């Protein structure tokens, strides 16, 4: 114990900056010099005594020197992990000696800075990530999302959306993840749409009725665009979620057809009518009495049936060249033809009045989108 006594006496006679250097030197000896059991134990005891040093810079120096080592004394690492945030965060972020159970405990009982450090570790497993999302604020969750080595499950991402989906930075970070499930992506888009609606109404830019209509249109468009970018399995999960929320509406089907996303309509009708997709495809292609029966079975608004049949009829004869401009041009042409067809005597006003305004808005949107693409975005440079 003479080594410990001499070390502590020297520390007692030194300034904090000198003590920090002495501690760094002792840590190097402990980690790098072969010591017998007695001297190694004495060095560990001396370092443990430094936990009581009144100067944070001394304890911080010890944390920086020991944090990454798998050979550091475990009680010392735990002591540093429970120190002030400026010190503990070094160890919580870097030490390989802290188990997942210990880290979960520190995350639950610590401050946000400590949780940020834990979320930034190289070895954030599924359980630790889930625990962090459950107890952390936005800052630690952002650190977790920014950590490419963090194992975050879809269910944990869903919990994150529930807890912090209203945070703009969290939404941005989540939406930037290519593996984010379509259902969660849609929930984030819905949340953003509601924020925008509240802002527009609060600023009195639009009446509540106008704002809600604009936001509803934007949400439906986002749904269709998102579905178009999904693989079949993810698209069907999105459709299941929309059905549960009562959002698989005739209006949504019309918008999907107007933008050429027939696959979304086929999957939606399959789900609603509990009919195999292959059967739905055949009935849509025929577009006769069988499709009418399928549509009625789906429970969608009866007044939209003539509109949807007219769109399917036009869509059968329409093709695009695979480009965005070709899709926009096809949508505009189809809507113009549908609007012309719906003006014939074969359709009663009662059947089309409910959706006429929507069709005109879609036609206008398609024409404007085509114009933007052809002009190269006239106002983009303004």
TrEMBL record:
This is Uncharacterized protein (DUF2336 family). It comes from the Bacteria.
């Amino acid at each position: 114990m003479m080594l410990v006594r001499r070390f502590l006496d020297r520390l007692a006679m030194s300034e904090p900056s000198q003590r920090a250097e002495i501690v760094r030197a002792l840590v190097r000896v402990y980690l790098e010099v072969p010591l017998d059991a007695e001297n190694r134990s004495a060095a560990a005891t001396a370092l443990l005594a430094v936990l009581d040093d009144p100067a944070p810079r001394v304890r911080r120096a010890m944390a920086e020197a020991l944090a990454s080592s798998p050979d550091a004394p475990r009680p010392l690492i735990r002591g540093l992990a429970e120190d002030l945030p400026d010190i503990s965060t070094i160890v919580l972020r870097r030490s390989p000696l802290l188990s997942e159970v210990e880290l979960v405990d520190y995350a639950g009982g610590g401050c946000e800075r400590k949780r940020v450090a834990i979320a930034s570790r190289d070895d954030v497993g599924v359980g630790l990530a889930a625990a962090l999302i459950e107890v952390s604020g936005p800052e630690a969750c952002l650190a977790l999302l920014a950590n490419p080595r963090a194992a975050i499950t879809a269910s944990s991402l869903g919990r994150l959306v529930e807890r912090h989906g209203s945070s703009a930075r969290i939404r941005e970070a989540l939406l930037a993840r290519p593996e984010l499930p379509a259902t969660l992506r849609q929930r984030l888009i819905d949340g953003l749409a509601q924020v925008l609606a509240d802002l527009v109404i609060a600023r009195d830019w639009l009446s509540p009725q106008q704002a809600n209509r604009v936001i509803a249109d934007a949400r439906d468009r986002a749904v269709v665009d998102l579905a178009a970018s999904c693989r079949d399995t993810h698209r069907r999960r999105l459709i299941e979620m929309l059905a549960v929320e009562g959002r698989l509406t005739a209006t949504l089907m019309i918008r999907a057809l107007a933008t050429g996303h027939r696959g979304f309509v086929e999957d939606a009708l399959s789900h609603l009518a509990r009919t195999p997709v292959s059967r739905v495809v055949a009935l849509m292609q025929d577009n006769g009495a069988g499709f009418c029966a399928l549509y009625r079975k789906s429970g969608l608004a009866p007044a939209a049936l003539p509109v949807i049949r007219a769109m399917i009829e036009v869509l059968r004869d329409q093709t695009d060249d695979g480009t965005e401009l070709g899709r926009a041009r096809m949508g505009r042409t189809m809507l113009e033809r549908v609007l012309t067809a719906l003006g014939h005597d074969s359709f009663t006003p009662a059947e089309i009045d409910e959706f006429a305004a929507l069709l005109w808005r879609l036609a206008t949107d398609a024409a404007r989108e085509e114009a933007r693409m052809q002009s190269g975005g006239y106002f983009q440079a303004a």
